[in-house]
## 1
Amino acid sequence: MKQNLSNRVALVTGASRGLGAAIAESLAVAGAAVAINCFGSAEKAEALAHSLREFGARATAFKADVRDEAQVRQMVADVEALYGPIDILVLNATGPQPMLKLEELTWRACLDQLEFFVKSPVLLVQATLAQMKRRRHGRIIQIGSEVFDRGVPEFSNYVSAKGAQLGLSRSWARELAPFQITVNTVSPGWIPTERHANDSQQAKDAYAAEVPMRRMGIPEDVGAAVAFLASDAANFVTGQNIAVNGGNTLG
């Protein structure tokens, strides 16, 4: 079902490629004006914005490090100056995700993940929250991961940060519900994107064989889930962790 997001403004972080790009496209197709945040892939973000505008959507690329408070506040101000108040905030940005055995784990490796999955969401929500509360409307959607539920080994730096991110969503959902602001998490399984270009087909086949639906998902599956949560159809849905992984984890 196509969602109607006309007259809504969305900011998607880490949206120059992969899942972020698919999310930005799904929101734009549904009618939202989309701010495409990027940090290291400005050319790809500009290309995506251009392709969406050719389709007839409103889309603009905005470069900012979402771990930096000053850059976050400037980006939000720039988006709102161009499109108006942000209705839909999609927290998707991430960085390198090294696999580390426990013996190799360092506090710095944990902090690197927490900066993307705790610090960045805090900065972005704080920068947009006042106007959402004032208008009594907002959609905050975090992009989590099934790894927290699966407890993937040799990945505790990433898994623990994703658990912390989910904790933010659950607490914020209760805190912001009186203001009619919903907070939800979409947790994909392993969905191949550019990030996984060097992963072997054997590993992908082995993963897919364990998924109850016997296949891997595609980025558009995540985009569709986000578009639903951003829409009026999800007015009464908050505090949820929606797995998009073919039944690989159960809520």
## 2
Amino acid sequence: MARLSGKVAVVTGAGQGIGRGIARCLAAEGAAVVLAGRTVAKVAEVAAEIEAKGGSALALACDVNLRAQVDDVIAATVARFGPPDVLVNNAQGGGQGTGSLAAATDEQFLAAFRGGALSTLYGMQACLPHMRDRGGTIVNMGSSTGVLGDPGFAPYGTAKEAVRALTKHAAREWGRYGITVNVICPAARSESAKAFEDKHPERWRAVLREIPLGRMGEPDDDIGPSVVALATDLHYLTGATLMLDGGRCILR
């Protein structure tokens, strides 16, 4: 029997890359998956892949910068499949630009914070009423960029560290309800990673040299299964950061 049979999962930013891999892994384990993304054609394509393999999926347009749209996604989830058991806050709603810290602007920091920490908060708050009486799994997205303080990414890295702080607060406050809240910091092949490689090939090669396993992860094979584990076997883990980056950042 599939480990997530009868469960309902919501994945934001599910139209490509890491979000797509996570959604497909959850569906393969039997979960009904709601795929949310700004480009509905992309999430619809992934939903069609899942349904073609016998799974249940619903594609929805959503800009995670907007609380009302996140609320609508959760309401649609409940109407179609029932209350969510798993929430994966994968989408970063904006603020991923690079540049020196000395030249960083208010707008860059606010965009990164709004698209990262606030959008994550929106999803968590929308799901809480449905998980409070039955438990649940929340997985948020951090980044080794924030953990390590990679030069040139201050707004993005700062926002991702805010996500980690938010996760720890939620783990302590919501543990009484049987809700686990954890962060994963993935390094994986995705569209954004490919764009960075194309634009900054030398820096890309430098990053790869920092990874003890010598490669980027695969969304379906390396990242998605970890989310499945958090929703099944790792039910006693909460408030933790899982560095799924091939060993680039080893927490002390």
## 3
Amino acid sequence: MLGCGVTTGVGAVVRTAAVRPGESVLVIGCGGVGLAAIRGARLAGAGRIIAADRVAAQLPAAVANGATDTVDAGQADLVTAVRDLTGGTGVDHGIEVVGKTATIRAAYEATRRGGRVTLVGAAGIQEEVSFPALSLMADGKTIQGSVYGASDPARDIPVLAELAQRGQLDLEALVTRRIGIDGVEAAFSDMTVGHGARSLVCFSPTG
């Protein structure tokens, strides 16, 4: 878990976005990396953490990992809902963890003027996103990518491990279920349709 998903999600918030205490954060996509990003926002001391997903069943895990608000993007307009939650201004940070044109645009539109949009989701090579030129200039937003949470494994994994040992980074809350090797195929099927977050393969009866 620390080798990939947690390092990517936490690093995107703490290192790439550099979220500061009291700032507001929107995380779009509540799978394994998205939940880790919510954990990262909590570690950073974010004031409001809004979690959004088109699969409503993902949202309770987002709350368990530190989200203060949730948006069922399958039922409500995401941008409108986020604006309503932030008094019309938008969030300080939009963290996109899906990699789709629509969610990238939503992250941009839900972020306030002068805010920062961080793209974590790996988009397909054919995916393209366009923005009005005047908006890019007038709104003063920063759009940046985050690969592997801008992390250095030798530097960051020991820090994350220590946080977990101290109880400041709850890895258990990021695990949807424990499976044996024979459950891997079903876990991949669940992942493709957005069910669950992190299936942990265990090779002992106790896990």
## 4
Amino acid sequence: MDRARIETLLNEVREGRTAVGDALDRLRDLPFEDLGFAKLDHHRALRTGMPEVIFAQGKTPAQVAQIFARMAAAGGNVLATRASREMYEAVRAVESPDKTPRAEYHETARAITLTQSAAPAGKGTICVVCAGTSDLPVAEEAEVTARLMGNTVELIADVGVAGIHRLLAQKQSLQSARVLIVCAGMEGALPTVVAGLVNAPVLAVPTSVGYGASFGGVAALLGMLNTCSPNVSVVNIDNGFGAACIASLINRL
């Protein structure tokens, strides 16, 4: 339930097209719906501009499916991150017993999406850049999230600093973006290099890709936090979702 939907409902009540009792029934799940094992925050989009998202990791397929179905019933777009194909099949069985395709599974991003309404449109392009193919799961999580939130997104893959000519060949796309999300593991140098080429915010995402001394992404995280480029901000390790949310907010300003 977002601001636009509540305004529509209130106007319907004022014009006599919806009874007060019916409106109360539609609002009864604000601010949350209690499923026992989960409390769904249907009010979040109204408060923050971003709907609640399902973090599927650690949940059972049945739990993910039930949460997904209740969020879908509320009428908005639905996103589950870090989801397995088994979870997707459970979602499909609950939301569409006749197997009519509605929810979509994004294999590399490990995400389940359902598009039911138009999200607020972004003003420009969000460019998602990743250093290597091994960083694609995080980059595609960012891409899928940003698209579902109403943005035009361009994904540029495998342009790490070990072959910097590959990055420079994408200079036009980089410089035309309104916001950039840059994902890199190993030493995490790519966001600083990209930031030196553009006059837009760069959201750096350290990934857990790398050999032993990368410490599961900690080396990349520290490198990004110590960037000399002033237009770089850093999110948590492997948090493509979080970077996409921030990029979406920036792109709406």
